[in-house]
Design a protein that fits this description.
about 425 residues, alpha+beta, five-stranded mixed β-sheet, 13 helices, globular, DNA-binding
DNA sequence: TCTGGGGTCCTAGGACCC
DNA sequence: TCTGGGGTCCTAGGACCC
């Protein structure tokens, strides 16, 4: 059996952990740049606030309804996520961290007769220790466990756990699940499936394999197996190294000059460099893109991206910045209102497998030490304590984060004060 | 009349996930 | 004024090789 455990309205729940006044009140968390709603508490959902709605359109509505609004604070959410995962691993021999707020637990060969009892124990424990409410779904495959989790949220709200323990329960669950709500079926496939007469997961389970193969490729075939109770998605107990690492962001304001664009780009390159070093990878290729804001209909639109091979695979920030700016020189055009740019590191390889030729400028041990020290200092004191000159100083373009909560658990200067 | 076959690599685009 | 960011996998088609 597989369990999928999912933190309820995770980002909102994180904000509540350190601010209990928010309990019972509508809370929303916004995307980067305070753009869209990306997490909603139950109360906010009841008010009819939809996922992805642009915040600026709802300013008045938020005020009128006393909605607590937060900028996203990934440092805080990441740290609380780690703590949740650490609690989970105490209950099972193996777990797969699937996302910041989800994990699959391997329940095979556990001494429990009643897995629901185990689920309740886990749920209570996470709530008591971290303060985050969770929902747990248990079923014979990953896809069904995902479904069981959704089913628990919908039909077993009081317990917050559901175990699809036998055929009857599995059928009941699948009958009440629309195809579009199946893990792996997005809007496009949902449309195709409904057009061809498959409305529920139960109906899809009985679909002819050949038809699925032709219309949904091997991905669909794998899904069909999973629905039929045959596990077809591998475990990933060890988080695999990323194949691409990217940093792309819209600016807090529109920018026009290459100088400002280059500061932003250099900062994103530095961010990617840090992530590369953390996973001990080097990039062979980089891609840089710039674009205007497509929502501004009256603005002249421009977008351009360019990929280039680096002379040597590297994760050294200075090198990444140097080549990023070279590419920018080639794709920047004067006279546009730029809204976003990005830096992608592609074709990553482990840093101990980099092939040098005899003529290559190899990173010196001194440079390595500099990078390490820089990463360490920035980790403790916040992201840009130390930066390269190319990243600039004023940062007019930086993200809008008007309603950021403190990093309660990772920054000593922002720790919660009980009493002054 | 009749114009090979088998393979790899790369890229773009489409689908999905949180 | 203001509309997210960061990933994965699969397929098709073209270039190229022998």
């Amino acid at each position: 059996m597989y369990a999928l455990i999912d933190c309820n309205n995770f980002y909102c729940s994180c904000e509540r952990v350190f601010n209990p006044k928010l309990e019972g009140k509508p809370v929303v968390v916004l995307s980067n740049n305070d753009g869209c709603v990306i997490s909603r508490s139950e109360e906010a959902k009841l008010l009819g606030i939809k996922m992805g709605t642009p915040a600026f359109m709802f300013e008045d509505f938020f005020n009128k309804n006393n909605v607590a609004v937060y900028s996203s604070n990934y440092t805080l959410y990441g740290d609380l996520s780690d703590r949740v995962m650490k609690t989970l691993i105490e209950f099972v021999p193996r777990l797969e961290v699937y996302s910041i707020d989800e994990a699959f637990l391997d329940l095979h060969d556990l001494p429990y007769i009643d897995l629901l009892e185990l689920a309740l124990k886990i749920k209570m424990s996470v709530h008591k220790r971290i303060g985050i409410p969770v929902t747990i779904g248990i079923a014979p495959t990953k896809t069904l466990a995902k479904m069981a989790n959704k089913f628990a949220k919908k039909k077993r709200k009081d317990v917050g756990c559901f175990w699809a323990a036998n055929d009857k329960l599995i059928d009941e669950m699948m009958d009440s699940t629309e195809v579009g709500d199946i893990w792996g079926i997005g809007a496009q496939y949902a449309k195709i499936l409904k057009k061809n007469g498959f409305q529920t997961a139960l109906e899809l389970r009985n679909a002819p394999e050949e038809w699925i193969r032709v219309n949904m490729t091997v991905v669909g075939q794998r899904l069909l197996n999973e629905l039929r109770g045959v596990p077809s998605i591998e475990w990933e107990f060890i988080i695999p190294a990323k194949k691409n690492i990217c940093c792309a962001r819209g600016f807090g304001i529109l920018i026009k000059t290459k100088h400002e664009l280059s500061e932003a780009l250099a900062s994103y390159a530095a961010n990617v460099g840090e992530k590369l070093r953390r996973q001990k990878s080097c990039a062979k290729t980089i891609n840089i893109f710039v674009q205007t804001n497509p929502f501004r209909r009256d603005d002249k639109q421009y977008m351009r991206s360019m990929t280039t091979d680096l002379p040597v695979c590297t994760n050294n920030t200075a090198m990444l910045i140097k080549y990023a700016l070279k590419v920018l020189d080639r794709i920047y055009l004067d006279g546009y209102n730029y809204h976003k740019c990005g830096f992608l590191a592609l074709d990553l390889i482990p840093e101990d497998q980099v092939q040098y030729s005899i003529y290559d400028a190899v990173e010196s041990p001194k440079e390595k030490t500099i990078s390490k020290t820089l990463d360490k200092l920035n980790k403790v004191h916040g992201k840009d304590l130390i930066r390269y000159a190319a990243q600039g100083y004023g940062k007019k373009w930086k993200l809008k984060q008007a309603r950021l909560s403190p990093c309660y658990t990772t920054r000593i200067d922002q720790i919660l004060k009980v009493k002054n």
